[in-house]
C-alpha cells in the first residue's frame, strides 16, 4: 500500500496522522475488508520524572538523563513487571519549561529570541536534542526485517503491539488508536499500585490498548465494546501482547457490553457473550472502571451526546450492581470546533460531558455517593505521543452512603 487515500466521510487519528506514507504497510484485511495495520508503541522507562512529568504543553523536547531505578513506586517500572530500561532510548514527551537556562534569551540587538521546536530532524543546528517524530512505526508481516536485531531483543519487555485501522468511516473510529487511550495507559503505569491484583472493567475499549496495559498489573480485566469485528481486534491485540499480560498470571476477557442495553448478553450462541460465572465475578470483584476518549465522539466534527448519556447511564447501572466501592477513570480530549450557531470556537461535547459529571456528583437520593475530581496530567510519560493541554483525566469515586 503505497499511499493512504481519504474520503469525505473518513477520519484519521492524530496518533497515525503524521506517519510517513512509506510506512503505511498493512498486515491483513479484517472481516469488513478494511486494511489492518500493526503499530508498535515503545514503553520508555529511563526518564527522569522531574523532566517527563510536566508534559502538558506544545513543547516536547527530550533531554538525556540518568536512568530512573525500577521498583521506586510511581517514578520507575512497576515492581514485578518485566519491563527493562536497558537499551531504551531516552525519548518521551518532556517539557523542560522551568529548567536551568529557561530565562528570557535576547539576541545581539536586545530583542527577545524565542526558541521554537524544530519542525523536523533535518532542521539545521537545533537548539535541543531532538526526539523522534511523533508517530508509531507501522510494521509489515516481515516484522523482523523492519525492527532489526536491537529492537527484537527489547520487544519482549517494552513494546506494545496494536493492530488497528486508519482513515475509518465515522462509525468505526474505535478501530483506531487515540491519544486519550495513551494518556490513560500512562496513568495506569504511574498508579500501578492502584491496579495491582484488582479486577478492572474497561468500557468502550476500542483497540484494547488500555486493557493491555491494565492486564500487566491487574488480576482480571474485562475488555468490553460492541461489534464482533472490533471485539475480534481487541482479542487479537491481547494475543499479540500475551508476553506482557500473561507474565503475572492475569486473566483478560473480551466481552460485549452495549451501553444502550440494560443487561449483559448471555446468549451462548452470540460471540463474546457473558457466562453467569463471569457476570458474578464482574459484580463481586470489580473496583476499577476505565473509559478512554470521553465525551463519546465521531471526530473531528461530529459528537454524539446521546452516546455520552448512554455511557453515564451505564456507569450508574454498573456501580449500583457492584458489591464494592470503586473508582472510574475517564480520559477526555477537548476538541474545539467553529460552529455557525455560535459563530465562535466552542466545544459543546466537552460542555455536555462536564454537565454529566456535575449531575452525577449532585445525586443525593440513592444508595451511592459520587465524588468527581480532575487528575493533574503531571505524571511521567511512558509512551511517545503528544500530551497536549486538551487531554484530561477525571476520576469518579463511588462509595455507599452511610
Provide the CATH top-level class of the domain at 174-400.
Answer: Alpha Beta
What is the arithmetic mean of pLDDT? 76
**Contiguous uncertain segments of 5+ residues:** 48-103, 117-121, 127-135, 137-155, 298-302
Gyration radius, in Å = 21 Å
**Strand percentage, roughly?**
15-25%
CATH topology of the domain at 174-400: Rossmann fold
Structure description:
The chain starts with 9 loop residues before the first strand and ends with a strand. 26% of the residues lie in helices and 21% in strands. It has a seven-stranded mixed sheet with strand order 9-8-7-10-13-17-16, sandwiched between helices. Strands 2, 3, 4 and 5 form a four-stranded antiparallel sheet that branches. It has 402 residues and is of the alpha/beta class. It is built from eleven helices and 17 strands. It has a domain of 227 residues: Vaccinia Virus protein VP39 (Rossmann fold, 3-Layer(aba) Sandwich).
